[in-house]
Amino acid sequence: MNNILDGINNAKYVMIVADAKNLSSASALYTYVLRLHKKVSLVCETKNIDNKLSFLPWFEKIKSAKVSSADFIIELESGSVELFNLFKNNNIKINNKMATALYGGLLQESNGFLNSSVNGTFFAMAEELIKCGADYKTCNKFIMKRTTLCALRLKAIMLEGMILQNSAKAAVFYICDDDLNSTGATIEDCDEALIEALKLPQVELSVLLNLNNEYEVLKIINKEI
Hints:
alpha/beta, inorganic pyrophosphatase (n-terminal core), Diaminopimelate Epimerase, Chain A, domain 1, 2 domains, four-stranded mixed sheet, 9 helices, globular
């Protein structure tokens, strides 16, 4: 990832492109580029970004389409751990905005530090980010927000229509615009049903298909083994 830093240093206008799952890292990187007094744009092409990410620094600056005038484009695929290590290994000071974004990313990527992949390094990183000024209370409030009534209604519809395929190893769900409109839920609320299905003994992955677009695959979530 060091080539990212080299590209930023040599650029006049940086464009950071990320999807919703890497938006926390993108926010931290956006702050770093701003500190260098360079022109920078943050682009997220994910439609209907979940409101739980609205606490991120510079959320209001996010563009939905790429710009043509940037001379260095970063297609960001790295998570918070990778970006944290990049900053640390290059002696880049992490300010409070960067720390808040990275801490939020840790929460999002680890499901509130509950994933089986979480180890002591995660908690040591979280502790250091708090010392750097991360607003961890706000991060927890937004990322780990409680289930809404809308999400519960959608979950009930999805579980009722769930189909087990491939010797019950795959849980397949179908969603349409009417389901979202009738419940008031968002596409991000579908994750609750997808994750719930993974608790079944034989299910190894959950798949969400779009009934409005020729069974387009919207999401696939794998069980952690």
